[in-house]
Design brief:
The structure is a single chain. This protein is of the alpha+beta class and 159 residues long. The protein has five helices and eight strands, in the order E-H-H-E-E-H-E-H-E-E-H-E-E. The strands form three sheets. A three-stranded antiparallel beta sheet has the order 1-3-2. Strands 4-6-5 form a three-stranded antiparallel beta sheet, covered by helices on one side. Helix 1 crosses helix 2 and helix 4 runs antiparallel to helix 5. The radius of gyration is 28 Å and the shape is rod-shaped. The chain starts with a strand and ends with a strand.
């Protein structure tokens, strides 16, 4: 963890005050500081508290970020269209809820392979992965389409 420390001169420049005024605040106890050698050092948190810029919450909180790649083999064009339509609707979602989510995909028609890239917060990414699982299970049970690969590989039938 990195903590920003400012000298009395830097704090004076930030606040637009004379350096003697800042040192006076430190000596009076109004601005917390630590002494390092012959100079005062003021933490960013103490400076923000002194200027009442930041609430009592921490300056930064941990943030989890998820990225994953999902490969779905033996997917015909219709199934790919169905899955990606669901993914697009999920990625757009409810605009009133702030969500950090990016979903991209590529389809290799010659290999009948759909590759999906999911990047976002853990809850949103998990929801997309569940949707992918549901969509692929539903496609196997209902679809009787035949994926004919252009490369001449064997056709794979989804049931």
């Amino acid at each position: 963890m990195t903590v920003a420390l400012y000298s009395a001169e830097q704090v004076a420049a930030i606040l637009g005050l004379h350096v003697r005024t800042v040192r006076g605040y430190v000596r009076d106890g109004r601005l917390p500081a630590v002494r390092m050698g012959k100079q005062y050092r003021i933490s960013e948190r103490d400076l923000r508290t002194f200027t009442r810029v930041v609430p009592d919450e921490p300056i930064s909180t941990p943030h989890a970020h998820v990225s994953t790649v999902v490969h779905i083999d033996d997917v015909d064009r219709l199934a790919m269209d169905r899955i990606t339509a669901h993914l697009a609707a999920t990625a757009i979602g409810d605009s009133s809820v702030p969500v950090q989510l990016n979903v991209h995909w590529t389809y290799d028609e010659s290999a009948c392979r759909l590759t999906i890239f999911v990047v976002g917060d853990p809850e949103s990414a998990a929801a997309v992965i569940r949707l992918i699982g549901t969509s692929t299970r539903a496609g196997r049970e209902v679809s009787t389409e035949v994926c004919r690969c252009q490369s001449g590989r064997q056709a794979v039938e989804h049931r």
